[in-house]
Design brief:
Blueprint lengths: L5 E4 L9 H17 L4 E3 L17 H15 L7 E10 L2 E10 L2 E7 L11 H4 L9 E3 L2 E4 L9 H9 L4 E5 L9 H15 L3 E4 L11 E3 L2
Parallel strand pairs: 1-2, 2-3, 7-8, 8-9
Antiparallel strand pairs: 1-10, 3-4, 4-5, 6-7
Length: 219
Amino acid sequence: MTDRFRLTLAQLDPTVGAIDANAAAVRRAHAEARAAAADMVVFPEMFLTGYQPQDLVRRPAFLRAATAKMEELAALTAEGPAIGLGGPYASAEGLHNGYWILAGGRVKQVLRKHHLPNDTVFDERRVYSPGPLEGPYAIGPLRIGSPICEDAWSEDVAEAQVESGAEILVVPNGSPYHRGKFDIRLSHMVARVTENDVPLVYLNPHYSPSRLGGALEAG
């Protein structure tokens, strides 16, 4: 692992459907991360559109607007820091719950959620197609894996990313408040760390004592 990697956690609450307002929050957080000399700033699951957008993402105009905004935000990263940002992604295999990696002024990679929850308040299987097991992405010298929310509750996604070279796991979530569930979430994340012997960062809009989280120094 690199001697130093500064990661800023933008644990902010997006508004469903408000692409422009959510993008403005991305710009503000990115500016703060740049001022803090961060290498990357990361946002929660589906932050650009808000979570859950439900059938909004199935409207072609809405999906085009979200995609265009992602490409616009990518330009912010030309001189750093990189951005990890949740949003819908359309591929040849279907519509996905995606995690967009923006770096070097372009869209570097889009990870696609593999395990789609389909209980209680979640009906992702109706809206999205599952993504494949994918490898990590590189930001500078560091290789990062990002199991998206439910993906971190199972062994396979994190394992595939670490076996492909991930040195740290950054887990973007959009989980709603659920009384008494913190310990369950924690036990799953501890399991992923124990199984893979890598550090893990858990990112969720509802569990930060401050709106913009402090930076992580990895060494």
